[in-house]
């Protein structure tokens, strides 16, 4: 059961401004120190999320309940992570929802893994493969803080060699050689299920598309998602000087019943 009241042991996002936020755990009789002064947790416990608290230097902080995006931004990254703009498109293209079963690889830092789990709960499952044990352990720590571990099974293994699951709704890949997984994904997916691959280079994308066509997947589409932020201020509104340009290509396809 969720509550709007901040309790001891809760996670809390202290919001100073759009560039400075602090994800912390509330502990009785302790304080959190910032360059804008310290905040006593005893002054926070019992307040409602969305309210404000003043630091010892009389600076206002907003008390927010952390979102999944907040947790993801604070995750320790063992590998390059998928940006939210690409994650959102992957979720939409995969057609997943509560109850969906997904095979994902590789786990990396667990950013995409946690996003997928967020959408398949409370009855779905993400089976996430990672060949490197040290990455799995880091991902586990990251994911446990989000509270989504019950909907994820972390598996040490090479997804290019074996997929244990059958009749899954989607296979979602973020690894160097996704084309090697296509035949195994074909076996693991239910008819009508979705294959999605995220690749930073066009050479990877071409090889993956070729493998999908050879295995009789249909509706094979590749897109690139580019997001540009706008600086909004009266008389000065314009695109921001810096932007995230190319991050990767997203290839989507669907499994069909085989020709007789």
Task: Describe the protein.
- It is a single chain.
- The strands form four sheets. A seven-stranded mixed β-sheet has the order 9-8-7-10-11-15-12, sandwiched between helices. A four-stranded antiparallel β-sheet has the order 2-1-6-5, covered by helices on one side. A two-stranded antiparallel ribbon has the order 3-4.
- It folds into two domains: 11-66, Vcp-like ATPase, Chain A, domain 2, CATH 3.10.330.20; 70-254, Vaccinia Virus protein VP39 (Rossmann fold), CATH 3.40.50.
- It is α/β, with parallel strands linked by helices and 260 residues long.
- Strand 3 (31-34) and strand 4 (37-40) form a beta hairpin.
- It has helices at 68-74, 84-94, 111-120, 133-146, 182-188, 202-214, and strands at 11-17, 20-25, 31-34, 37-40, 52-54, 60-64, 101-105, 125-130, 152-156, 168-173, 189-199, 218-224, 230-231, 238-239, 249-254.
- The relative contact order is 0.11.
- The model has no long low-confidence stretch (mean pLDDT 94).
- Helix content is 24%, strand content 30%.
- It is globular.
């Amino acid at each position: 059961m969720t509550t709007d009241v901040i309790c001891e042991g809760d996670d809390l996002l202290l919001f100073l401004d759009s560039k400075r936020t602090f994800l912390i755990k509330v502990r009785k009789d302790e304080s959190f120190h910032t360059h804008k002064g310290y905040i006593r947790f005893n002054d926070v416990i019992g307040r409602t999320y969305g309210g404000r608290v003043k630091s010892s230097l009389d600076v206002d902080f907003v008390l927010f309940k952390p979102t999944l995006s907040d947790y993801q931004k604070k995750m320790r990254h063992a590998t390059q992570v998928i940006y939210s703009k690409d994650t959102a498109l992957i979720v939409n293209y995969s057609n997943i929802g509560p109850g969906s079963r997904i095979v994902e690889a590789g786990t990396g830092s667990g950013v995409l893994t946690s996003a997928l789990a967020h959408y398949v709960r409370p009855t779905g499952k993400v089976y996430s493969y990672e060949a490197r044990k040290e990455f799995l352990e880091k991902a586990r720590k990251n994911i446990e803080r989000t509270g989504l571990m019950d909907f994820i099974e972390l598996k040490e293994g090479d997804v290019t060699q074996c997929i244990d699951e059958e009749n899954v709704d989607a296979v979602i890949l973020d690894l160097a050689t996704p084309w090697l997984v296509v035949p195994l994904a074909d076996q693991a997916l239910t008819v009508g299920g979705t294959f999605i691959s995220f690749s930073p280079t066009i050479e990877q994308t071409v090889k993956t598309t070729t493998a999908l066509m050879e295995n009789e997947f249909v509706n094979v589409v590749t897109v690139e998602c580019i997001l540009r932020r706008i600086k909004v201020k009266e008389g000065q509104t314009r695109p921001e000087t810096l932007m995230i340009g190319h991050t990767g290509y997203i290839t989507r396809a669907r499994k069909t019943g085989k020709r007789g």
